[in-house]
């Protein structure tokens, strides 16, 4: 780890600890209000998100199960509330214990920064003090003890802030995490919810295909049939009118070509023919080649991948690279596929401006639905300013 990245980690950990201290004070002062179940869960979820952010493992919202029965919903909500209530005293105690040293460290660094050049500006009875109880009364004391205090405390922060902050974050996640039974119930709820989303999407897709075939391809085929019927009747009535027959046949030929093009588009939206023709490697090569941003493709040895997984990966990569081209202002992107045992990993990265969000219609929500339907996982790391990394994990050991 480079010194620059280490100091960035120290700043991140210091900010986390100071906010934890502030949240502990708020918890103590607003304890009666925070005992309201809904506010308790909101407060706990906010701490889960912060802990996941620090540990680099963003936590999804702690939703109650859907479509699993009123009793399951009530049991899940009760379990979440009890964990959140347990977190209140833990948060108050841990926030103070972990945050106060960080505040003292940062506060005394700031004191030294002010005392070193400006000690003379204070009244004699209000002289700043370094190393807790050493008054600064002359330039010698200021120039020796001030930098020394900054160096010592900065070294303590450099070595101590990251592990202390990680310990607090792990404590938070441990207290707020599900029991094994709760994890199983949440998993069942997620699968139930994603299966319902997939059924809805499947129904909508079938309606779209039916509409495209009925309003587009079928209409063109009917028009072609009518032109051919007119041409046949005209040939019987006027066998020598070649120009009229030529026009009808030309229109019928052009209509046939257009109908074939529409039919190919409908088929491609159901299952990309390129997957059947070239396989996943060739299909992704075509997608990355057509991308408006220079894209590098790395594919490890994948062995056999189920067709459903291939289709999800193809559509996910295509959608992600479309987002890169339209929204990211990136100059380079990469797609990497690797397989470990029965898990297929897909990582799509770009060096753009970041800020990707499911809620803003960037297509990530669609990618997430496709992946979750196969019991996979999606992680989006896209801080404002970039870079963006979308990681997909899919089971492929069927």
From TrEMBL:
Catalytic reaction(s) noted: ATP + protein L-histidine = ADP + protein N-phospho-L-histidine
EC number: 2.7.13.3
GO MF assignments: ATP binding; phosphorelay sensor kinase activity; protein dimerization activity
InterPro entries recorded: HATPase_C_sf (IPR036890), HATPase_dom (IPR003594), Put_sensor_dom (IPR025828), Sensor_HK_TwoCompSys (IPR050482), Sig_transdc_His_kin_sub3_dim/P (IPR011712)
Protein's UniProt name: histidine kinase
CDD domains: HATPase_UhpB-NarQ-NarX-like
Organism phylogeny: Bacteria, Bacillati, Actinomycetota, Actinomycetes, Micromonosporales
Ranges where the Putative sensor domain occurs: 17-171
Membrane-spanning segments: 15-36, 96-122, 142-161
Coiled-coil annotated residue ranges, if any: none
């Amino acid at each position: 780890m480079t010194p620059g990245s280490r100091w960035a980690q120290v700043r991140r950990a210091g900010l986390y600890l100071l906010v934890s201290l502030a949240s502990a004070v708020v918890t103590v002062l607003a304890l009666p209000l925070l005992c309201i179940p809904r506010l308790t869960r909101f407060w706990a979820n906010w701490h889960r998100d912060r802990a996941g952010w620090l540990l680099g493992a963003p936590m999804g919202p702690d939703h109650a199960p859907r479509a699993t029965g009123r009793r399951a919903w009530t049991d899940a909500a009760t379990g979440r509330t009890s964990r959140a209530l347990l977190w209140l005293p833990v948060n108050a105690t841990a926030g103070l214990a972990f945050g106060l040293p960080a505040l003292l460290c940062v506060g005394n660094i700031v004191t030294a920064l002010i005392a070193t050049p400006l000690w003379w500006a204070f009244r004699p009875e209000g002289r700043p003090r370094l190393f807790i109880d050493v008054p600064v009364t002359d330039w010698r004391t200021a120039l020796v003890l001030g930098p020394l205090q900054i160096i010592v405390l900065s070294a303590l922060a450099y070595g101590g802030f990251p592990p202390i902050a990680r310990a607090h974050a792990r404590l938070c996640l441990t207290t707020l995490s599900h029991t094994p039974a709760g994890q199983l119930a949440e998993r069942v709820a997620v699968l139930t919810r994603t299966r319902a989303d997939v059924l809805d999407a499947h129904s909508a897709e079938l309606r779209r295909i039916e509409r495209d075939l009925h309003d587009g391809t079928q209409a063109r085929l009917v028009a072609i049939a009518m032109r051919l019927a007119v041409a046949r009747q005209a040939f019987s009535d006027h066998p020598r009118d070649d120009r009229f027959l030529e026009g009808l046949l030309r229109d019928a030929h052009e209509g046939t070509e257009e109908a074939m093009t529409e039919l190919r588009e409908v088929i491609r939206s159901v299952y990309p023919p390129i997957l059947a023709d070239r396989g996943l490697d060739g299909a992704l090569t075509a997608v990355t080649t057509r991308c408006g941003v220079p894209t590098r493709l790395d594919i490890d040895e994948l062995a056999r991948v189920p067709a459903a997984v291939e289709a999800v990966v193809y559509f996910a990569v295509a959608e992600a690279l479309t987002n890169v081209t339209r929204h990211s202002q990136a100059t380079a992107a990469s797609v990497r596929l690797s397989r470990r045992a029965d898990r297929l990993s897909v990582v799509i990265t770009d060096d753009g401006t970041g800020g990707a969000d499911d809620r803003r219609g960037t297509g990530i929500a669609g990618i997430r639905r496709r992946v979750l339907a196969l019991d996979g996982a999606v992680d989006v790391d896209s801080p404002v300013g970039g870079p963006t990394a979308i990681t997909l994990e899919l089971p492929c050991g069927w």
